[in-house]
Design brief:
This protein is an alpha/beta fold. Helices cover about 35% and strands about 15% of the residues.
Amino acid sequence: MSARKLRSSHWFGEVDKLGFAARGWMKNQGMPDDQFDGRPIIGICNTWSQLTPCNAHFRELAERVARGVYEAGGVPVEFPVMSLGETLMRPNAMMFRNLAAMDVEETIRANPIDGVVLLAGCDKTTPATVMGAASCDIPTIVVSGGPMLNGRYRGEQIGSGTDVWRLTDELNTGKITKAEFIEAESCMNRSAGTCMTMGTASTMASMVEALGLALPTNAAIPAVDSRRRTLAQLAGRRIVAMVDEDLKMSKILTKAAFENAIRVNGAIGGSTNAVIHLIAIAGRIGVDLTLEDWDRLGRDIPCLVNLKPSGDYLMEDFYYAGGLPAVMKEIDDVLDGDALTVTGQTLRDGYADAECFDRRVIRTVQEPFKKQGGIVVLRGNLAPNGAVLKPSAATPALMKYRGRAVVFETYEDYKRLINDDSFDITPEDIMVTKMCGPRGYPGFPEVGNMALPSRFLKAGIKDMIRISDARMSGTAYGTTVLHVSPEAAAGGPLAIVQSGDMIELDVPNRRLHLDVPDDEISRRLAAFVPPKPDLESGYSRLYQDRVLQADQGADFDFLVGCRGTPIPKDPF
């Protein structure tokens, strides 16, 4: 029984018609009277769905959380929210991140919930649930679903996403057969869990741990490892204590916490998608986080983690090597170790005793895997509001380059033309794709790492510069300039790039320049006609009308900010 009056008491604490209805109908589930005597009501926000394979094991995790809540004297109530499956949803899961965040926020606010445990795994379920909870600002813990076991195919380790792109290229160039391609599918995905590369799912699981929103070791425990279930049960116990301590998200999600997460992202070689998601989360809790923070804080952070897509190993290896606590201990001197976490202790307390057990997987600062792991932010007349690039996944020789633009007006044009042998493109060109930003697709798809022409792949060419207003899967690799802002559909300069224009990429000087005279750029922009909305009604239209640009986190303009959890008006 909590020492202070809880939010849920406004539902269950009164002997009147509203209290009768609230208690009485809950009792039809077999709940005894003492469940309503002032014990904390803990929501278990479950993104389970068979349409989200990464999260298909969450029913068991929810049971473990509930066990922990009961053990600590709380009352667990599981509720479903919209689940976002990266591999099945079209046009893309990102389009529905904000919708799922609205679902989480309004479900928490409308119900007698004192604290919440967020069960999240697949890429967008983590930022969506955290964004929704942040706008409510109640005690919150994230329990990630964990990565799949390492893929094994014909004697080699293969990683989800990363090796999908590689195997697809090999299929298209005749290096493997269709039967071998199909066989690899089963060999890659052999357990419950998220992508086992350092893709967006593993990156965001690492981000919530670095932010202090998850218990130590949350990021890397494999989904089917018994220690994942233990972590869930301990989270259930801890959230009850957090409610009693009134340890809200706003006490944890400070500017220092976000700065820690940005530095950790660099050290693990994390996904460029973390840029968008952390800016959106910061906007919900009221912390000013910008692209400049990403470039400033990540500029000198070396990549220590040798994982695909940047390296050789996978998340299971990362966990056995010491996981995220070992990485944070290695970069302790650049972290704010005094930042508060859900444990009620500091971030440093969570990694103080960490050890690294395999230096092939987790390197030292003195001998890093790659000298630069942070996200680079580019600006120039082609990206006035910024664009991003992941150096650890790029080709060093292309970091300073000038080349001819070959333009695809839409992603559909790219698919139609890229393997047409008569199409005018050379390996020295820069591939540019438009209309793939938040408004343009709509939904901001992961098509930024455009595959090279098959004839180039057959010739052994593995990389070219690619520029777009799209995103890139965290499992992907290559010299790709992403999130160009403003996007083409919003009338950004990307919209008026023409084939034959010269583009300069200068990563050391953070510059992305369209080598066209200013008056010609102005003339082209004046003649630009924005595309017609993909759909004239429904959620798609709402998305296109109200979504912010990439540099602002691609949240809806009306969702930015923390609205708290005022007690709603009586229903009757």
